[in-house]
Amino acid sequence: MPKLFEDKIRNLAQHTQLRFDLRRYLDRLQSIDAHFLQATQHDDITVFCHRGCHDCCLGLFEVSILDILLLAFYAPDSVFAADIHIRAKEQSRELEACGWPFPHRIADQPENMETSDFFSRFDQTPCLFLSDKGTCLAYDYRPSICRFQGLPFKDPVSKLILADQCPLHAPDRNPVPFDFIGFDRHELKIFKHFQTFSPDGLHGHVSDFDMPIVSAILLRSPNSQQATRVST
Questions:
Q1: Where are the alpha helices (DSSP H) in the chain?
Q2: Contact criterion met (CB below 8 Å) for 63 and 212
């Protein structure tokens, strides 16, 4: 099943419509940055994150399939360090040794993985895109979860504060309103469009296809005979 899913992803990457949908998704991601920047210009909001701070870039965390596709088939070669594929393969082998097969879809995790100490072993493992200088090599194409770090965001409808906020902030300190429901709705709309033109279908909910960053790197790997990239 994991190999079949990997083939579906690669087949999806061959579709000419993909690059247009990924461009739409990237525009939506950039709206988060614009909202973040606007919020930081208020005098009553203190931003603790700064260039070189990477407290939120440690650990093994999953990102959405849209983020995976954006990095694997849309981002330019310049965001990939020379040794990143070697390090990605090492991390992937460790995941597979624990029973989590490539491409490490969340739906394929062993049942005991969430309750074991597996993820705690990666608590201090830097993201594969984190440079030696503490900066993000894929900054312009980084996933949505990365863009929501640094400020406490609050959904104006649900009144809930984003759980993944930067730990340097107090939970109740000047939460910035952001339309999470609208963002999720837009993400789901693009994913459903993927489902319509995927040759053999991506069946399931969008969250079923969450994967760690390493998956994007290896799906793009130049050492793979099936490696492909959407032209931009």
A1: 2-13, 18-40, 65-73, 84-97, 144-147, 180-197, 213-220
A2: yes
Yes or no: say if 204 and 48 are a contact pair by the CB < 8 Å rule: no
Q: What is the pTM of this model?
A: 0.85
Q: Which two tokens stand for residue 141?
A: 């194409």
Alpha carbon dihedral 31, 34, 35, 36, in 10-degree steps, equals 120
User: What is the rounded CA–CA span in Å between residue 45 and residue 108?
Assistant: 41
Give the residue from 73, 70, 95 showing the smallest Cα distance to 2. 95
DSSP structural state of residue 121: G
pLDDT of residue 68: 94
- In terms of Cβ atoms closer than 10 Å to its own Cβ (0-12, 13-18, 19+), residue 147 is middle
Separation between Cα atoms, residue 3 and residue 159, nearest integer Å: 41
Amino acid 55 reads D
Handedness of CA 94, 77, 228, 222 (dihedral sign): negative
What span, in angstroms and rounded, lies between the C-alpha atoms of 196 and 191?
A: 9
175-203 pLDDT per residue, tens: 777 888 888 888 888 888 877 766 555 67
Dig out the tokens for 118 from the structure: 């597996």
Cβ atoms 59, 123 nearer than 8 A: yes
> Which residues fall within 8 angstroms of residue 217, CB to CB, at 6 or more apart?
71, 72, 80, 84, 85, 88, 128
